[in-house]
């Protein structure tokens, strides 16, 4: 079957192009500082095409998005904005169109690799599996 095993717990390892990306999507400066080198732990529960995707931020804040591949779902951005999106599976990657960026997630060499693209600015975040 064409679905990848995303299930697990992943800890932030590194990112590229953070500042350029958050400026491009208009994140407020307090949130920009909060997110820089942020040891986000991403927890993914996967049951077939059903996902619960939770991000645990230092200091106790969490964001949870629950979605089914191919069905519209209520989502929340890293800046806390609510919106509707349909997550698709393309070549083993989860793909979602956020209001002002395109987000993909894949498992590569056992790591969770997330790429967000906004007007040609590409932000890449890598997390290592911890559970």
Automatic annotation (TrEMBL):
One Pfam family recorded for the sequence: Lipocalin_7
Annotated GO CC locations: cytoplasm
GO MF assignments: lipid binding
InterPro entries referenced in this protein's UniProt entry, alphabetically: Calycin (IPR012674), Fatty_acid-bd (IPR000463), ILBP (IPR031259)
Main location: cytoplasm
Signal sequence residues: none
Subcellular location: Cytoplasm
Entry keywords, A to Z: Cytoplasm, Lipid-binding, Transport
Keyword Cytoplasm annotated: yes
Keyword Transport part of the UniProt annotation: yes
Cytosolic fatty-acid binding proteins domain location: 8-25
Family to which the UniProt record says this protein belongs: Belongs to the calycin superfamily. Fatty-acid binding protein (FABP) family.
Protein name: FABP6 protein
Organism: Irena cyanogastra (Philippine fairy-bluebird)
Organism lineage: Eukaryota, Metazoa, Chordata, Craniata, Vertebrata
